Amino acid sequence: MAVRIALAGKGGTGKTTTAALLIRYLVETGKGPVLAVDADPNANLNELLGLEVETTLGEVKNELRTSVPESMSRGDFMEMRVHEAMVEAEGYDLLVMGQPEGPGCYCAAHSFLSQALQKIEKSYAYMVVDNEAGMEHLSRLNMTEIDHLLVVSDASSRGVLTAARIAALVKPLQLQVGHKWLLVNRAPEEIPEALDKYVRETCEKETLSFLGYLSESKEIFELEVNQRPIWDLPSEHPLLVQAYRLFEEMLA
């Protein structure tokens, strides 16, 4: 089974950018193949990876209602369509959940999708899941065992408190997490002493491991604004070096 890494964090913290940096790290350090899953309804991980998405898993789930051939079981149909929805790239593949369904729950579709993903992930060394803040997609897909939960915060005490509350959701969602990490993103060059103290006290209180700070980067901002992929960031860029060092520590 793949090593499962799930990212979570409130909007605006740079969670998806961090997920893209992590995928680039895994690919460039030879730790692949990697299965990337964009489970955030506001899906834009593909843009940061420079990939076009034609079919989402949400669309595939809806097809189970009307489009399954009589000669095929629904489980086989789901597995086939998940493979077809996959966007293939060098060293990694991407699946996008897409928008949630309307009123009501099509539980059978979730079950078939969960089974298909469990089969597929066996072909990968790592699975990186970019989540919505609430992480409900993990429980819906029966993805209840996570090796690393990486919660991303901005460099504010309110953001750190929100991140801690997100990490605490593992209990009500009945997720089994091997290790919970906090990453403070878009940090200033000089970390205020009060913020650093609050970060470390919060991590100790909430049984989070503090992974470190990622500095604010003008180049990352420009990539996001211009919808350019994370691969355009030069390999010697200080932020990339900083991020790779933290990821290496997390996966050691």
From TrEMBL:
Species whose genome carries this gene: Thermosulfurimonas dismutans
Signal peptide interval: none
Domain CobQ/CobB/MinD/ParA nucleotide binding: 7-230
Descriptive protein name: CO dehydrogenase accessory protein CooC (Nickel insertion)
GO molecular function: ATP binding; ATP hydrolysis activity
Domain of life: Bacteria
Name of a matching Pfam family: CbiA
GO BP terms: negative regulation of cell division
GO cellular component: cytoplasmic side of plasma membrane; cytosol
InterPro entries: CobQ/CobB/MinD/ParA_Nub-bd_dom, CooC, P-loop_NTPase, ParA/MinD_ATPase
